[in-house]
Amino acid sequence: MTCEQLRAIGLSNAAIARRLALGRLHRVHFGVYVVGRRELSREGVFLAAVLAVGADAVLSHFAAAALWECWNGPTIPIDVTVPRRLRPRPGIRPHTVDELPASAWKIHRGIPVTTPTRTIRDLAGTMYSERAFRRVVHEALARKIVHLSTLQAEIDRAPARCRGIRRLRAEIADGAKPTRSGLEDAAVEMLRRHDLPSFETNVHVPGTPAWVEVDVLFAAQKVVIEVDGGAWHSTPFRRELDAHKQSLVEAAGHRVIRLGEDDLTPRSEAQTMTRVWRALGHETARETAPAPAPAPAPARETAPAPATSTRSSSSRGVGGR
After folding, report:
1. Coil, strand, or helix at residue 216?
2. DSSP states of 2-69 as a string?
3. In the 8-state DSSP scheme, what is residue 267?
4. Is residue 89 classed as helix, strand or coil in its secondary structure?
């Protein structure tokens, strides 16, 4: 609660000071107090930071992404955005903007917070890790709190020189799709590093029961990639389910490649991509290179040719496999 809220219920400054001394109130930030127990939930910590900044402040950036459940990393110091200049405060990281329209924030779990699309736009301009940023986008898409169309609308609304817009636009143009794990992210990133046909992630395979969904699908080539995390796919039940799903996918005319953690390391990338290219019906660059010309056969001893004639040596075809 803020000082203003405490005064609104009839407490004077002296009464507030007395309750602080007795341990009935605990100061969280300057002018912000918690009643009774000192411990706060995560949402309580977020709300206290917003209240400390003022009535025009909203939770934003990493803290906002955590509140929207698309970021599980660190949130301290707590990011708060406000349409005015603000001095730094202990435990709070202020962000100043020229304006904060009503369309850019809402009340979620009792806390003023930037909308999911505005949160992603803010993080696009501040997150160092490309993988972490893509993870946030994927989680938001998977939870259906944003859509590619709403992200595009956020880009269209942003000022021309807004930080992170180019990064967000590239992510949308890359066909951002939600995955379920960091291991699947690693697989998708590996595939995108190579000149492969277009593919989809976490989609239903045509011709199979409605519950059958695969990690990666090359629809035109009828190739499926399944990414098996050790803990998730190691139980007897899961192995049996994976085998049953694979049989259904193969019966629908698709080829299945299974990749584990070891297949997604930099050391294994070349071998893994060879498997993928072969499944897609292509040969690797090494296999399509021209075969070396065979050594010439030993020349036979023949009678000298007439001086007035010439001979042309015939060459054997190269790479005629």
Report:
1. strand
2. BHHHHHHTT--HHHHHHHHHHTSEEEEETTEEEES-S---HHHHHHHHHHHH-TT-EE-HHHHHHHTT
3. G
4. strand
Residue 265: count of CB within 10 angstroms of its CB: 11
Q: What is the pLDDT of residues 167-176, one digit of tens each?
A: 888 887 755 4
Whether 138 contacts 185, CB under 8 Å: yes
Low-confidence ranges of the chain (pLDDT < 50): 176, 283-295, 298-321
d(C-alpha 153, C-alpha 157), whole Å: 6
Report the chain's terminal Cα–Cα distance, integer Å: 80
227 residue type, one letter: V
- Residue-wise over 145-176: b if at least 16 C-beta within 10 A, else e? bbeeeebeebbeebeeebebbebbeebeeeeb
Residues 6+ apart with CB under 8 A from 242: 226, 228, 233
Do you find a cis peptide bond into 77, omega within 30 degrees of 0? yes
